[in-house]
């Protein structure tokens, strides 16, 4: 195993709270704090991690896109399994679903030029508190979001913004969610010191 620490990712000096690698391995995304009170999502070119000898060019930059649409810190970023969509959630209590535009050039909110343009496809609002984690199910049929409001929301990823179920039962903030590789269960962890296993057939706790 080789440890790499690309200093150019942290050049802005702001905290990074989440990272995810695209399914095809071509890029990765980071989410965290922006320059002000806003959140920041950055999509980076993976080839500069894999090939240290690469020289950056205008046609293939290290930073592919920057999105500053979240009004508060971004806590979680996750690619869909297909790689078509990117989901993000943060302290502004919303989830944003992003889709890459066919247009090659776009502008960030700070006025900079993006090599890739990722547009907002959906904005999901149902949580009453900060969103700490999210997960896509196998086949990208569902999205589960976890919040400090002690709940988990199951979204119909094929008919957004439709909500399938709001899972309640945790008595503390929900810190993490993940689907099993087969898609039969959703696991959640909470500040109430418990882990729960939910069946995806009826969204009840498996006992």
UniProtKB/TrEMBL annotation:
Keyword Nucleotide-binding found: no
Gene Ontology biological-process entries: chromatin remodeling; DNA-templated transcription
Residue windows of the WD repeats: 67-99, 124-165, 167-198
Top-rank taxon, per record: Eukaryota
Domain CAF1B/HIR1 beta-propeller: 11-201
Sample GO molecular function, one term: nucleosome binding
Family named by the database record: Belongs to the WD repeat HIR1 family.
Full protein name: Protein HIRA
Species in which this protein is naturally found: Caligus rogercresseyi
Origin organism lineage: Eukaryota, Metazoa, Ecdysozoa, Arthropoda, Crustacea
